[in-house]
Design goal:
0% strand; 210 residues; homodimer; globular; DNA-binding
DNA sequence: ATGCGGTCCTGCAAGTTTGCATTACTGCAT
DNA sequence: ATGCAGTAATGCAAACTTGCAGGACCGCAT
């Protein structure tokens, strides 16, 4: 649960404010569309100042999708890394991480999750722009990608390791985006298949390329 | 030459204004840094209103690097496509196109080109953010990628063709970015090698992946 | 309970970017 | 030369985003 994280008053307040912002953002987008859901309006509804909004989220879109700023996914990532990906296909791991970042807020209520699904369906641009800034802003993600690749025997540990990590990460992001787009177009079921679909897309692409 | 494109007065004026904006942007960035080079300052120096600035370029950074808005690279792309890429490796073609978009302004004076090199070296973030928005905003690029891939026998022509095009394009963009980063770090020579380097990076990555 | 150090919230101002409406200019036909 | 239609330039306002500075609040030691 997101609302009773760790017992300090400060932490509780932060969690509550975060939840209020996410709820406000999602409700306003569903009710009035993404253009009418301005930062001012969201902040108003969440009971904070617009300046404070940006202390909680990097952008309007991040708030809508519930993507915590850089430090927030720390947990998700460490978790996945700790979950021993030894011998696993780095592509599978990375696709999982990328999809996981998009799901930072998935500890939230099922109501929120359902609403977000609807939003992504109706306004795919939002997810698109967020995915675009993923590979750009999230240096951390790149570090993790490099770390994962360095744990794979197939990848040499030379000076180009970082460059390769960037390339593989970009591939994974693009695949996740493609999988989401497909899911958004067809009135399909829910997400767990999305990661598998992304991996499958990468594999067929690679098979064609080589 | 960019300043004597097609003889209509209108076209000449447009070309001249474009050139003035690019020159102003580059000079200001070199003199005062990217933060001090505001849109207002650039527009002032170019003798236009700040609003007009955005009729010529999509963003401050695009102006600095001389990247024309979506329609601008039409020519570059058509040219490359016309130059018969039959039987050529789609990766090579795409890397060329991506690098080409970054060089839209390369018809400009050699002075401008040298200054831009210096800017990219000193402020790599600019190139980074531009590359990030490439795969996001440039729908056209994606279309071309799909077209190129559809011309290659190895790629099936099924429903996933667009998804695969997105993945390959993302790979190429990431590779070009990596190649540029490398070039920016080492006090290396000039650009023609960058495309080859990007292709090489992709190939070693693929070899490791499969 | 009080006070201290650190964190958080807020207002303000600057900068980027876009939409809309108004005005000016170019290209072309008369 | 004149006028018309389309295109370009501009001003204006709104929205997003970030840095800075002042004040409020929380956690903790005394």
């Amino acid at each position: 649960m997101r609302t009773t994280e760790r017992c300090s008053l400060r932490d509780r307040k932060r969690a509550e404010t975060t939840a209020r912002i996410e709820a406000a953002a999602v409700e306003l987008v569903l009710r009035d569309g993404p253009d009418a859901a301005t930062v001012d309006a969201i902040s108003d509804r969440a009971g904070i100042s617009p300046r404070t909004f940006f202390n909680y989220f990097d952008s309007k879109d991040s708030a809508i999708l519930g993507i915590q700023p850089d430090g927030g996914d720390e947990l998700v990532l460490e978790e996945r890394l700790a979950a021993g990906h030894e011998g696993e296909d780095p592509v599978v791991v990375l696709v999982g991480v990328v999809a996981g970042v998009l799901r930072t807020g998935s500890g939230a209520s099922s109501r929120l999750r359902r609403d977000r699904e609807a939003i992504i369906r109706r306004h795919p641009e939002i997810l698109g722009s967020q995915l675009a800034s993923l590979s750009a802003r999230k240096t951390r993600l790149l570090e993790y990608a490099a770390r994962i690749l360095s744990g794979d025997v197939r990848f040499p540990d030379d000076a180009d390791a970082d460059a390769r990590a960037g390339i593989v990460l970009a591939m994974c992001v693009a695949a996740v985006k493609a999988a989401f787009d497909e899911w958004a177009r067809s009135a399909a079921p829910v997400d767990p298949q999305i990661e598998e679909r992304a991996v499958a897309l990468i594999h067929t692409t690679l098979r064609s390329l080589v």
